[in-house]
What we know:
alpha+beta; 4 helices; 3 strands; 30% helix
Amino acid sequence: MELATIRLQHPIEVGGAPKSVLHVRHALRMGDLAAVQRYARRHRLDADLSSLLGDGDLGALAALAESLCDLPPGSLDQMHPDDLSALVEGISPFCGTASPATGATPSASSPSSGDGVRPTSSPSR
Length: 125
């Protein structure tokens, strides 16, 4: 099940094929946080998760987004900067109470439907 769709203006290549749509597959899980920690260790960053994400570390943001969207590590390294705001907007509602890039708290409504991001409707319960 996907929670949101992020449309990229500039496709990236994943597994040898162009990809212009990313799908947020799940809300934040421990494995997603572990991906950010692996990024921090690999780059010898001495900061906690809140600092990495809240201060807008692009590598930490990419590691988190790759995990949320089930992309191979490093896939978003080729992402065009024009697509950054759509990425942040797309994953922020699923990251708990704060935006990973700004620390802003999302509204209580469903995820934003600004440029490049489309929430995926879920079946009624």
